[in-house]
Amino acid sequence: MNALRKIDKILNRVRSVVLVALLVSMMGMCTMNVVLRYLIKGVSFLRPFSWVNEMMQMLAIWVVFLAAGLGVRQDAHVSLESFTEKYLPAKASRILHKAAQVIVIATLVLLIVIGIQQTIKMRTSFLQNLPISNAWFYAAIPVGCAYLLYEYILILVFGKNPFASSPGEDDNVTGAF
């Protein structure tokens, strides 16, 4: 369990650092283009960059796929539990909850496989305004789904994520998100 805890801590830190870096980059690019578009109008060689909007859209894809795992980790996503606990017996509710988890895990495995295939297929396609392969952005699907799969497997095995921090806990970066 200690080895799994260390692996979890590393995976969670990497995800959190990447998310912060992506969000800071997006804010910087957006601010830069706003300044160039609205505040520095008269200078002809200082124009907004055409690639910023495209890049921000692609980075937003990464943010969504990586942050989804944080929502699962903190049990922040909408779930069936409130409905099933209210209208079904406890045993039926538990069975339905486990079945839903298995379906989600199977779907995530499928998304990882298809995401890898699409990433490989898109490696020769490039962004319109930058010489960056679209594969970098399609890679968000298998990477984000792998994080989600990891979180759901922990929940399936342990009943809930054993490493999720409680609100207000300082030792986990995700508590700030």
Automatic annotation (TrEMBL):
Keyword Glycosyltransferase carried by entry: no
Record GO terms (molecular function): transmembrane transporter activity
Keyword Membrane: yes
A cellular-component GO term for this protein: plasma membrane
Source species: Faecalibacterium langellae
Location in or out of the cell: Cell inner membrane
Domain Tripartite ATP-independent periplasmic transporters DctQ component: 26-153
Membrane-topology descriptor: Multi-pass membrane protein
Chief location category: membrane
InterPro entries the UniProt entry points to: DctQ, TRAP_DctQ
Protein name: Tripartite ATP-independent periplasmic transporters DctQ component domain-containing protein
Record field: transmembrane: 16-40, 55-74, 95-116, 136-158
Entry similarity comment: Belongs to the TRAP transporter small permease family.
GO BP annotations, alphabetical order: C4-dicarboxylate transport
